[in-house]
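Before going further, learn to read the protein records used in this course. The integers have meaning only within a learned vocabulary of local backbone shapes. To see the layout at work, look at the sequence and tokens printed below.
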Amino acid sequence: MARRLANRLETARGSMATKTNTKPKQNRAETERRLIEAALDLIQRNGVLAGLNLREVADGAGVNRGNIYHYFGSRRDLLRAAINRRFEAVVDSVLADRRGMSFVERKLRSFRWIDKSQDSELRALLVIDGDDTVDPMPAYEAGLSGLRQDVIDGDIDRGHDLEALQVTISALLRGYNIFRKPLAKRIGTNVKDLDKRVASIIRTWLAAMAKPPTT
């Protein structure tokens, strides 16, 4: 009887220890998720150039502002976490949708997708904040590998500088994504109309990559 009681007490202690060890981790994961979502909502609502007010982020997540520094360390680290969370959430599905597509169609799909991710705005906000460690071209190696395959498939002439092409495509798509709304306003049209017109220009340019570069 005494041994059985001791075993039960030991089991109870182990159960309590497990709960004690897992609860903080669960609470931390939930708090981090709410902070990241609150940050993304603020950026979408106020725009990238408005910056990111940490007090508003904390209020939006329903937590104390000190949680941001406790879990992320700084505003930059919070933004990095937001970038990773959003980028990883969509990249797999995007890659799956692009299978079997030609070089031109694949890049046009990127042109249409990138606006939904807020990835460009988030990375730009880090650069504006003075962070020189932010990656301006995530998945660069994978993109370059795809271009090499496009050369093999005949969609890109082998005479083109593939590294410069990857940089140009990234700069064009991300730059347009950030400024598309004020650009549409500047020429007196709506964003959807400008998207279609710019996509037509991009299609013509990308199709020309199948021909040798001019000197």
Observations:
- Residues 24 and 30 are 10 Å apart (CA to CA).
